[in-house]
Amino acid sequence: MFRRIMTATAALAVCAATAFAGDDDVSRRWAVIAGMNLSCPTTANVERSPRDAGNIAAFASPQCNVLVEYYLPQQHFSVVGGYNAETVQWFGSKVDATMQNIVLGARYYPLSKRFALQPYASLMTYTNVAQRHEQHSMSAWNGGDGYGRDCTLRLPHVSVAPTVGFDCYIFSSLALEFQYGFPLAIDGKAHVATTCNGRPDVYRMRSDMHRHNIQIGLKATFPFRFTSADGNSLFTLIEMALGIYDPADEPKRETKKERRRMKLGRVLDSY
Predict the structure, then answer these.
(1) What is the largest CA-CA distance in the chain?
(2) What does pTM read for this prediction?
């Protein structure tokens, strides 16, 4: 399994290198990004019972996002906007909520467009257009143990997120995108109160709805183009998928020191 992962990584690296080899005129005007994102909220304050020691907050199930990016005339800047669904959860999904966000932001790319790896930093805003206020009550029993839980959620209307990420171009107009952000909720609150076995003790969790967010997607840039180098890269990927080609089987290139040693050996053998 590890060998397959390393082989796939090597293949993507080869494709990225060949797709941009000698290409100094990379024209990108706009792009479409489609993928998924996962969020994990932070907890501001926790008082919990030893009987209820499960994970309070964790990454929820992935949700979809679709974004459009427009490259500004300034070479290193772009604006991004679109739609993003985002789920936050606590207590192993027993308390969760989904936001429907309109996304708007700006990105800065420090490197020239001719590089296959494009890191960026951005500032994003998320405007939740779905229902903001939720209240839930629940109870459960497991053998002789049980608990009751009451929660009040006020989903943030606006969140501001500093983010970092990178685009890895596997072809001239097609890239894999990876992004990490930390959305700061401006007006979000979550309160969860738990009682165990009907006892009077109440254990509380409070969150300001700040959260970690990871985004993975596929990015297509326009004007879309497919070069001969892209064709060679695609052919290499197909060969690897069929098991015909393995980059690990490629002979290693000789270093200058090894070539000098070989020349010296041939000279000595001639005597």
Answers:
(1) 98
(2) 0.76
